Amino acid sequence: MRTAVAVAAGLFLTFSAIATAQDPLADANAAYRRGEFRRAAQLFTQAAEAETDPTARANILVNLAWTYWALKERGKAEEALEQALGEAPHLELVPEYYTPDFVKALARARERMATPRPTPTPRPMQAQPRFEPGSVAALRSRLALAEDTPALEALLGEVRAAALTAAPPLASELLDLEADTLDRLGRTEEALSLRGRGAALRAMSLAAPGASVVPLDALLEARRLLAGNRPQEAAAMMSGVLSALPSCVPALEIMAEALLFSGRLDEAYSALRTALLGNEKPDLLMNLGEVEVRRNNPNAAREAFRRAVDLDPRNDRAWAATGLLAARLGDLSGAREALDKALALNGTLFEARVVRAQLALADGDATAALQHLQRALQVRPDDPWASGWAGVAHLASGNLAAAQPRLEEAAARDPGTFTLPLVEALRRQGKVEQALARLGTPRPEDVEAQLLYARCLLDLGRGADAVTALQPLLQLRPNDVRVRYLLGFAYHAGREWDQALGQLAQAASLPGAPAQLTEAFGLAQATAAGQRLMDTAEAPITLPRR
Question: How many CA atoms lie within 13 A of 440 on its CB side?
Fold first, then answer.
């Protein structure tokens, strides 16, 4: 009879559990996302006990360890990792989804399991004195009276010891006191981290059951620090928030921005990947794409931008980022399409306007390029980059008077981009000596500069010098139409007809050679034939006078 009762009771408990939690693992993940880490730990434990597959159980135990890690219970976290390794000895973590300290904890657990442990001698437990609320005011008074570093360090130790036994409401006050003490010691980032953690704990204590926990004050302060060009301090504050709320997406987003701003790209990537696990937002994907661009992973960046566009087809920034990256990768057709969509949604996108103008120049449409640049300069009238490209567009349209002053100013700021267009503008105005002075002696591998140098020499009637300058370039670029054409022109200027005809013929035969080359070759043939006729003609007959 007792057996029957036990079975009935067991069935009742089973059906009750099914009614309240159909899937402990799903409920555990949901509790974790809400910041209910104690509840999540209980549910992960239940899910691990119910799982029969060792590999799946190992993964659940890793989740349990990560939850304990969020609760700052490192001992329990490492114990769960040891259990996971017992289920799957070859278990490895994906570093991008966890902090470096957590990955190291798994390595320590693996080492301990490989090393035989001595049997510990039990020690009697000593009760810790409980911290009383009134002591916080006393500690604050001591902080106000502390005059030197030793006094502050001693106080810091006492505050930390008190926090070990303080109840949750007092723990937040003690964290604030510890942060104030660290500020007095000049340890600003540590203080900010503690303030972030304290803000998260207060938000958790005030949030309604099941509600999303957002420490708004800490998030606003971090935004203020970012706006003040203090990204390291913003990151420190968010690290404190995330130590208490590891799945707080707004904190992860700000943390990623701060890390990106600081150049800590790998850490920014990890923060963004973690944030995207719980909430795939276009802004997060945009930041991820920016991180991937700066990590020199263009394909991954393109995928992030594409996903942002898929989620929000009217996101002008996502279209602009897609187009700018396509232009950088040489996909001019894709760049035109994406930038046109971005500008149709928001005509004030400055960088998209300038790059779209560059694409118009590449298409030979100087008029469209000028229109784009004029609109860009309406947004930023004094921007030297846009003004310089407006100079290039004026040069392409033949307006040399408008081109030169813009290019002079731009070349002073960015000589690598705008010196050659300036030299070309001077050359076309007949200021060839001035153009050569600005150009200097170009490097042998700088093809564009070498070609422009040769053109200037030809303008000055120095055909032989042009040939000398172009011969090394011919060895470097034997299939470049421009090199062979200019070399043929230089030989023609030096009256070396056979050499000129040979180079022009080869230039005209190369893929992509313009139709004008065939005409130039024909004219050179006629010139050479006329000169040969003159060279071989007999002396003219002089008729006698009447």
Answer: 6
- CATH fold of 164-205+212-279 reads 1.25.40
Tokens standing for 390?
A: 């407006």
Higher pLDDT, 64 or 135: 64
Conformational region of residue 440, where left means phi above 0, alpha means psi within -120 to 50, and beta covers everything else: left
Q: Where are the domains of the chain?
A: 16-114, 164-205+212-279, 457-528
Please say whether the beta carbons of 517 and 487 come within 8 A: no
| 542 vs 262: which has the higher pLDDT | 262
Superfamily of domain covering 16-114: Tetratricopeptide repeat domain (1.25.40.10)
**Would the pTM count as exceeding 0.85?**
no
The sign of the torsion formed by the CA atoms of 157, 132, 238, 64 equals positive
CATH number of 457-528: 1.25.40.10
**Residue environment code for 51-80, b if the CB has 16+ CB neighbours within 10 A, otherwise e:** beeeeebbbbbbbbbbbbbbbebeebbbbb
Strand, helix or coil for residue 482:
helix
Q: What is the mean pLDDT of residues 136-145?
A: 85
**Tokens 């040891």 -> residue:** 82
Say if CB 350 and CB 370 are below 8 A apart. Answer: no
